[in-house]
Structures are given as C-alpha cells and as structure tokens.
Amino acid sequence: MSHDAFHGRLEDDRMVTGSGTYTLDWDFPDTAHAWFVRADRAHAEIVSIDASAALAHPGVIAVLTGADLEAAGFKSLPVITMPLKPDAMKPLMPFRPCLATGKVRLAGEAVACVIAETQRIAMDASELVVVEYNELQPVVDSLDALKPGAPQLHDDVPGNLYWDYEDGDRAGTDALFARAAKIVKHDLYNHRVVGHPMEPRCCTGVYDAAKDQYFLYSPTQGPRMQASMVAKVLDVPTDKVDVVAKDTGGGFGIRSAPYPEYCVTLLASKKLGRPVRWNGTRSEVFLTDNQARDFICHGELALDDKGKFLAMRFFIVANNGAYLAPTGLLAQTRSVTSCITGVYDVPVSHARIQLVATNTAQVSAYRGAGRPIMSMLLECLVERAAIDLNMDVVEIRRKNLIRNDQYPYKLVNGTTYDCGDFEGVLDDALKAADWNGFDKRRAESARRGKLRGRALSTYIESTAAGGIPDDAQLLFEADGTISLKSSSHSHGQGHETSFAQVVAGVLGVPMNIVKLRTGEAGMRVGGGGTGGSRSMVSFGSSYLLGAREVVKKGREFAAKELEASPDDIEFDHGEYSIKGTDRRISLMDLAKKYKGSAGEPHPLNSVGSGKWGMTFPNGAHIAEVEIDAETGVTEIVSYIAVDDIGNVITHALVEGQMQGGLTQGAGQILGEHAIYDRDTGQLLTGSFMDYPMPRAGMVAGLEVLDHPVPTKLNPLGAKGVGEAGCTGALPTLANAIVDALRPVGVTHFDMPATPQRVWQAIQAAKAGNPRALQTYTLEYA
Amino acid sequence: MAVKVSMTVNGKAVSHEVEERTLLVNYIRETLKLTGTHVGCDTAQCGACTVHMNGKAIKSCNIVAMQAEGANITTIEGVAKADGTLHPMQQAFKEHHGLQCGFCTPGMVMSAIDLVKNFPNPTEAQIREQLEGNLCRCTGYHNIVKAIKAASADKNVTVVGG
Known about the structure:
heterodimer; A: alpha+beta; Aldehyde Oxidoreductase, domain 3; Aldehyde Oxidoreductase, domain 4; 3 domains; five-stranded mixed sheet; 20 helices; 23% strand; globular; B: alpha+beta; DNA polymerase, domain 1; 2 domains; 5 strands
C-alpha cells in the first residue's frame, strides 16, 4: 500500500471517538478496589505489619500481606531463561514475591494490599497500615554494589552479582589485540530511563469459582505469554488463566510481563468472590514499572595500520535492579550482543556483561532491548577511533562495512546476517542529508551564536526470533466476516490493519471484513507475544501462509461448484474461475455456500504457522544539532533516517513506528533520566514534573526513508520495524552532541544532554576539564 | 462529605451526589461512565484527561467536579456528529496516522480543537508549542502535528457535536 492510499487504520474510529476499551474501561458489577501499601524506603527488614486500624476503617474488606500469598502457595514471579554453554555460569535468580516478605529491596515495593468498597477508601485505609522496618543501607549504583563490603540484597546472590555473562572468543580476540597497530578505547554510561506507556499499569482480577478459572484484565503485549507467567506465580496450569484485553495503551517491552499487583488481585478475587480492580497511578509507574538501560559500558577496538578493524572487546556492567524482571536476563545479555560487531566486518570479538543487583526498580526489555546498548557503544567507539586516528567518520565506516558479497555473514557468536546493502544505505543517507554541505551550515549556525554538530551512525539490530511456532488462525464466521486469531497483541502497532491487509491481499476480500481478535477469554492459540519487533515478521508471515491455505482449500469447493477439475481452477482478486472461461464464484460466496455441518468448524478455516528466524533491520542515520552555549539548550535541527527494514507492508504504519522510535531515543538523549539518590535509594525523578518526557517541540525536521533489501527468511520479506528507530537514534544524537561541543573543548560527554549538563560541560572544559560529564570508566577484564 | 453537582455534559443535563473530593475526571469516567477521557498521570502533565469546559480545553484531573457546577462540558464522546460522522479533527488524526495506541488521543483531539480556536491558521512551530501540555509516547508527535495542520483548514473545525 503506498502512502497516498492510506486513509486510516481499522482501529482508528473507536480510538478517535473515545470508544476504545482500555483496561480500566472494563466495568464489572460488585467490583472491590485494591490499593497497595508501598515501602517508603529502599532497603529494610520488615519487622511487623499491623493492619488492624485499616481493617477497622469503614468500607475496608480485607488486607493482604506476603504471608497470605505464601499461605496460598504463591511462587516467584518468573524469569525467562535461555540455553547456556555447559561451562557457563548459571544466572542466580532470587525469589521475587508479589508482596514483600522479610525484606523490602526498593522504594515503592508493594508490602500490603488493602481492598475496600471504593478506591478512595482503599487509599485512605492504606495509610493506616503500620509497617515497622529495620532500616538497612541501600546501594543503587552497580559499581558500588560490586564492591567488597557493599550492602547485600539477596542471601542467594553473593556479591550482588546475578550473572557474569560472556559472549564470543576471548582468547582469539586478545590475540588480535596483541598484534594491533592501534587500540582505541571508549567508555560511556547508557543511563537509566522509565518506559512510560501512556496507560498506567492497572488491572482487574476476576476469579470464576464455578469454572475454577482466573481472568486477568490487564494491559498486555501478549495475552497467552502473560497468562503463562501468571499461572506460574499462582502455581496452576496455564489453561486456568485467561488474560483479557482489547486496547492496550502502549507497551514498548514493559507490558510484556505480568506485575506483582496483577497476581494479588486474582488471589483477592478468589478470596472475596468479587472482581478486584487496581487503578495504578503514574507515580507507581515511576517507582515500580520495569525500568530500562543503566549500563556502564567500556569498548575497545583493535585496528591495523590502515584503519581496518581487527577485533572488538567489551566489558559492560548492567544494573538490573532489586529483582530480575522476566526479560531481565535475555534483554540484558544476548540481546546486547546479538549484533555485537554491528555492520562491520570484524573477524572476532568478545563481550563480558555483569548483571548486578541494586536497590532500584527491576530493569527489562524496553524499545530495542539491549540492541541500543550495543549500537550506542559501538558507534561511539567507531567515532572515537575516527577522531583518535584522524580519519574521516564516513570513510572509517565505509572501509569496514560488510560487503554485499559476504552474505551469509556469520559473527563469531553465531549470529548470521542473511542480507543487507550497508554501503547503499549509507550513500542514500549521505545524499539525503547533504553531508558535504555541513561546513556551510555550521558557519551559518555560528553566525547566530550556535554550536552546530552532526553525526552519522550505521546501525543494525536483530528482531526477536521465533522460539516457538507462531500460529495464525483464519476463521470463517456466520456473519460473513473472517476472524483472525493469534497470540500477539497490538499496543499501538496497528495489527488490526496490517494483518488484515496481509490476509485481504491474498484472499482478495475487503479489509473491513477481516477482524483481528487477540485478547479474548477462552482463546487458545500457540505462539509468542508482541515484542522484539517481531509481529509482522512472524505473525504476518503465518497469516500469509494461512491465507494461502484458505485459497488452496477453496479450490476444491470451487471445482465442485463450477463442475471442473481443481487443476483447471484459478484464483484471482477473490474469485475462482475456470481457466479461459467466464464461469466464476467468489471466495466469500463459496464460504457462504459450503459452510459445513452445524456445530462443526467452517471447512475453509485454516491455520498458518512457522518458527520464523531472526531478521536484521539496519540503517544509516544522520542528525544535526544546534547548541546554545550560553544556556546549554540543545535543538535537533535535522534528522535523516534511511532504513532497510525489508519489504514494507503498510508504509504509514512503518513511518509511524520509525518516528516514534526515533523520538523515544531522542527523549533519552535529551533529558529522560531516572535518578536514584545514592544515600537513601529514593527515586529523585519520580513524576513528569521532574522527568522530562519528549514533548511535541523536541524533534522537528525528521525524514524517514526506505532502502528495502527483502529477507528470504520469511515469506513477507519483512525485517521488523518497531525498535529500529530507537536503536539508531541513541548513537546518532549522542555523537552529534559531542561533535557540537568538541570545538569548545569538550571531548567526552555522557548523556542526557539537559541544558544544565551541557552548560556544565562547557564551563568545565573552559576551566581545563574536557571530560567533566563523564560518569564512569572501566577496564576490560 | 457528599455534595450534589449539576452540569451539562455533551449537551445533556446531569446531576449526581458525589464525594467532595471527586475529581471532574473521576465524575466523568466513573459516575457518567464516559470512559473516552483517560487518566495518564497524577500531576496534570500528560493531558490525556483534557475536556472542554465552557468551550475551553481544561485538564479534568486538575479540578474537582464541584468546580464545574453549572458548566457546559464536552468530552471526546461529544465531538463527533450524532450520526457518527467524525469531527474534522478526528478525521485528520485518522487520515494522518496521528495515533498509535490511542490512549492519549482523546485528550490530544480535545486540545487540538481548542488550539485551532486560538490559532486559526497555526504554523508548525505554533502547533508544537501549544501541544506542550499533552504527552504522546507512541507517535513522536510528527503525525499529530500534520493532522492538526490539515484539520485547521476545515471551516467546521471549531464546531463540536451537532
């Protein structure tokens, strides 16, 4: 579909008129309301919890604590694990309770749940719950937490080290470093942010005693994925849990997993025999949503005397927070290193990543999930190499790009890139950005008293591969529509439109008779959720196969109807016909006529399925920024993104994903920052008053261009687009800002580029300290 | 303490006993069951709860229902025509892909209609500045800005309901 043909999505009418159904829009009779008592300190032993005054408060129905959950047999919130080499360290996965027992490990951790007739009563009564604590020293910085004598969070995580992960070939890498003509090193801090979907975390738990079935109404990226994790906590079979959702107000990776509160409301509903609703707030999002990033990064690049890359090695310390989030292992390790040497031809590499426990919120997958960590480190390292070796920033990249004749290209860690045109993408971007005209623009900015900087990044990322087959069901309904059922769940991507487009395209039927249904009670369909930019690659491909299966099945009925051999039947634009004749019948007429016996599934119903492999979206991004040295204010004046995301299904939706991802990256670079107080462990940036979200004025002049190289790894040729913008934006903007500051003496600057930090860096450079805003340094170890 | 509030919402007179501390947004969502108006924060920053009070955009989380006594309130449900025809601003958001998850959209549309009342032919810079009070996490705002610019050319863009 071309951009011109776009007139809106199938989901838009309800969303622009306020008729969407988000989690708190579900309304159940006889609902009770939950409110959580949260730890007001970051690290403490719980001495006692006295809920008697709360229970005596009019309108209070019950107060649940960790002891009630233990009595009910609650298990730990689960962590997604991955296959390991036999000699690798096993990750330590401490118990993560839904209500704290024994100890609290982060400010905001839920300690008790007050359930009352109204939300306001529950809120009031929660203040009457008296928790006596024995306070402990918190630790919020990951390097502090690794020091001998640091406060210890978990008895079963000695030294606060969840995992010491290694990727690649250490010995081979070190051997090439020993022979290198030049070694370039770079440190950076990829600071912590909060994901902030606009719909705060919330839920209604409904237990149906007659069916012994749990129904969780919650924001979700994948109902069955979430149900399976909830079932683990409740210690019941997965089939006993239904996650029900219609519209989900954003996700970005953070809404893939269940949260403690969800499981507590389900137990509360079972105990009370009523639906129990929890209306979470933005403050609770800040404190206890899965947070993101917080990686201290060190990279080294070995080059020969001609500027050719020989090897790379990395040492990274990741602050994983007080507990492991469900994606806290995968997103913090394998997702970081999956494209470890980027778009460059580098024979060997090694990475070590330590995952550390601190008294901060748990860290999970968030737009890019690990890949922006590596893209930022890698591109800042390459930029540093260009500067240190006095090479042109384009030429150092061009010289080292993987060439088109090198595919399939296997990285030392096993990742295999199937296709790409990295130099073609780079050239498109240079042209679109008028790369060679920059000096003139910089001089023009200087005349207005502004520092202008620019940077180029050539990034690549991997989309989430299919660990399990992703099923796509196509069901012919009595009302003349076709239902699509799958386990992914749109939280903004527009699946109702894009999957309908894939199916309608094959079947030759109008898009508006194709209805996507994903989060319904009772739905059992195999596959993963939405995440890792995978939905079009995987579910889109499965729908394509399912639709082709429908056409195949229909041919038999058409042959019967038209009294011809199936071999003589052709299908085109929704109609079967006998080759060379005008005898024809449409697929939908056929579906109406041959609907099978009553009570039986429609004979044309089909399922497409596949375990779709990892794909590799990539691109070249060029940003120009202007900095006011007097105020420290940074403005993005242009941003060109040329991306190869394979075949594009719906251009408008792809462009929207890119724009959103880029702006989310820009938000992190220009201001978003979750800052914890080092002494008390309190989150200092705990509201939108203190945490600068990107607003409409932040990124203008954004241009998104396609350079598609279709992959053969799936029948759509699609590579996935959800996270690419963010993966490209972090290094591009970070390097552009440092480029602007270099003429005034700043050689190193850790993000975010808030006016205050930029101004500080400029003042410090004037006073002789060019690296004042560098947060950490590490040695490769 | 319960108190009686009376106002006009989307052209209909409504009157209820509510707790004094009831926020206007809670009255709209929980008492009137008009769930198109959303709550995205607790500091009057995100604008998801934006409605019109006496023709002006306000954040309905930032006043108590009592303060709207006798007022004329329009929510997102009252913007389209009675026959379901979308308001030009709603139509523009749809056509320009100015929404993804849709959670901020009702507030955005309400703010945007007020915006074009105040700036009848807004520049891109004016739109971006005037949208300061509404947060969107999905779109990066680019298509929202385009939608508002396009809708501002429609002569009926400041008319709601009907």
